[in-house]
Amino acid sequence: MEYMREALKLAAEAAEAGEVPVGCVIVHGGEIVGRGRNRREAAQRTDAHAELEAIAQANAVLGTWRLDECDLYVTLEPCPMCAGAILNGRVRRVYFGARDRAMGACGGVLNLFMEDFPNKTALQGGIMEEECRDMLSAFFSNLRAAENSRSVHDTGGDIRYDSGVPDGTDTRKE
């Protein structure tokens, strides 16, 4: 729980920065050797995921690409890209919070860890699941509310919607 709380702190930092709130820590010998949070919007990079940032930091701290004595704690089930990095880094165990039914590669959509790869990473989901899920839900709820408030503009009497046409008539073609 202690390490997932640290991952949740990083997820909160991501949310404050306008990023999807995912945080990750990597632990070796009882010490956190890697920390990461989502930075895709700020970096404008597809691969700026919390897990990859934490893995890179752990590699630098430990001086090796092999993370076979490390455990990874992440607030959201890893996607296929991150699962691939976890498998390639030979991470010993993955603990994740919320299930990802859209992109999850630990059982949410598919399970890369069940494939016949040489490294057998152990998985445990549902760690502080409610807290992790609530943070994600709140973030997306706030994002939708902000998008909805931007889609209706006051134009001095006329209400214009995304279409830009007075009275909200939507002229977009389907």
Number of helices: 5
State the end-to-end distance. 48 Å
Outline the biggest β-sheet.
Answer: 5 strands, mixed
- What are the secondary-structure elements, in order, as H or E? HEEHHEHEEHEE
Q: Report helical residue fraction.
A: 25-40%
- General shape: globular
Radius of gyration: 20 Å
Multimerization status: single chain
| Low-pLDDT sequence parts | 153-174
Report the count of strand segments. 7
Question: Could you describe the 3D structure shown?
Answer:
The chain has helices spanning 2-16, 40-43, 50-62, 80-88, 129-151, and strands at 23-28, 31-37, 70-76, 93-98, 122-124, 153-155, 158-160. The model is unreliable at 153-174 (pLDDT under 50). The N and C termini lie far apart (48 Å). α1 packs parallel to α5. The chain has 174 residues and is of the alpha/beta class. Helix content is 37%, strand content 20%. The strands form two sheets. The protein has a five-stranded mixed β-sheet with strand order 2-1-3-4-5. A two-stranded antiparallel ribbon has the order 6-7. β1 and β2 (31-37) form a beta hairpin.
